[in-house]
Amino acid sequence: MANQDIACLLLKVMASIKIECVVKGKYSVAESPVWEERDGTLLYVDASEQNVYRWNPTNNQVMKVHLDAPVGSVVPRNSGNYVLAIGKKFAFLDWEEKMVTDITEVDSDKPNVTFNDGKADPAGRFLAGTMAMETSSGEFEMHQGSLYALQTDHSVVKHFNQVDVSNGLDWSPDHKIFYYIDSLSFTVDAFDYDLQSGEISNRRVVYKLERDECIPDGQCIDREGKLWVACYNGGRVLRIDPETGKRIQMVKLPVSKTTSCCFGGKDYSDLYITSATKRMDQESLQREPLAGGIFKITGLGVKGIPPHSFMG
Question: DSSP letters along the chain, please?
Answer without folding.
Answer: --HHHHHHHHHHHHHH-EEEEEE----SBEEEEEEETTTTEEEEEETTTTEEEEEETTTTEEEEEE-SS-EEEEEEBTTSSEEEEETTEEEEEETTTTEEEEEEE--TT-TTEEEEEEEE-TTS-EEEEEEEPEEETTEE-TT-EEEEEE-TTS-EEEEEEEESBEEEEEE-TTS-EEEEEEGGGTEEEEEEE-TTT--EEEEEEEEE--GGG-EEEEEEEBTTS-EEEEEETTTEEEEEETTTTEEEEEEE-S-SBEEEEEEESTTS-EEEEEEB-TT--HHHHHH-TTTT-EEEEE--S--BPPPP-B--
